[in-house]
Design goal:
This protein is mainly alpha-helical and about 425 residues long. It has helices spanning about 5-10, 10-20, 50-70, 90-110, 110-130, 160-175, 185-205, 210-225, 230-250, 250-260, 265-270, 275-285, 310-345, 350-375, 395-415, and strands spanning about 140, 145-150, 155. The chain has a three-stranded antiparallel beta sheet, with no helix packed on it. Helix 13 runs parallel beside helix 15 (about 395-415). The longest helix has about 35 residues, at about 310-345. The two termini are about 30 Å apart. Its main location: membrane. Belongs to the SEDS family. FtsW subfamily. InterPro entries: FtsW, FtsW/RodA. It comes from Ideonella azotifigens.
Length: about 425
Amino acid sequence: MSFADALRQPFAGLRERAGALLGRAGGERLPIRDWIGGVSAKPVQLSGYDTGLIWVTALLLALGLVMVYSASVAMPDNPRFSRYVPTFFLSRQAMFIGVSFVAALVTLQIPIAVWEKWAPWLFAATLAMLIVVLVPFIGKGVNGARRWIPLGVMNFQPSELAKLAMAMYAASYMVRKMDVKENFVKAVWPMAVSLGVVGVLLLAEPDMGAFMVIAAVALGILFLGGVNGRMFFLSVAVLVGAFVLMIVFSEFRRQRIFAYLDPWNPDYAQGKAYQLTHSLIAFGRGGVFGQGLGASIEKLHYLPEAHTDFLLAVIGEELGFIAVLAVILAFFWLTRRIFVIGRQAIALDRVFAGLMTQGIGIWFGGQAFINMGVNLGVLPTKGLTLPLLSYGGSGVLLNLVALAIVLRADLENRQLMRGGRT
């Protein structure tokens, strides 16, 4: 028995109890409707859905909207944004949330079986988009990075889609390779190659932060899927070694590490550690209860990217330690709830749904942890936004679509427990 199987052992009885409730001895797997094959799924009835998950998501979105406005209201004073009105980023973020909400409602109607069927094709399409974004005159470059494809109303970031596509593809891969999961060549090596291709494309942008999140999602799903422990830790060691080599052979990344280790050094404080030092100043000014909403000084052109990567620092300065702690607890609860839904799906013999959902949990928890760690000086500076809160159309869109998929998995779990079918 692998270590991951041992972790799932306490939930093994849930499948049998579910089967007993359905009148099916032994928790026999229920047939899944072929939604693509001609029988359309009925619209989801929002009864018995996870209200806690929805409320926490809504509160984080609302807080993010308020803080994006507060962090960006003074940006028109900067000559670079002189053509913008003070409410530019507020109205754009509100539009992103509206569009994303509609996309989430549509996503909620799609059965998990559809995502399982199309996961490899979605992953292939994502790889194509990661290539397209690198093509001159197509991909949009900002601050030396080429990560966006202009779509008129918004700039789409393929790396955000890659996080969801990897969660689906890795879950689908593990389901298909479940019989050979103890074999390195058949189980781990093909997944490692896929991850390597994604890594090369993301590092060409460059976007090392997104690659770290995607790598965590892929390895996490391999572990939860029951891959041999020795092979898993070998894969982790190889990946960590690759990150170390990238830092050693890159002057830019090496200087970031030195700046992180000694941010107040005069050689770094006005250079590589500029964002970190001003983020720490913001938290220091905020104290326990903050300076008050709108009263941040650091957002007045001292703290770069205050409405995106360093939004938590503005929250800390204006609303204090209490608000920062609330945000941390909200993400902890959200991640834990997503994992619980995933474990329930696995216990009901819905392995793809369970692994995919837990992969989304790793994505949200891992990215939030990295962003918070960067803001608080616990981790080196990386260009990762805070899910659901930071400004950005692609991030909000894919965050809400991913959470809609989690809600769909939870709804199907509940339907099975009530004796229905997915």
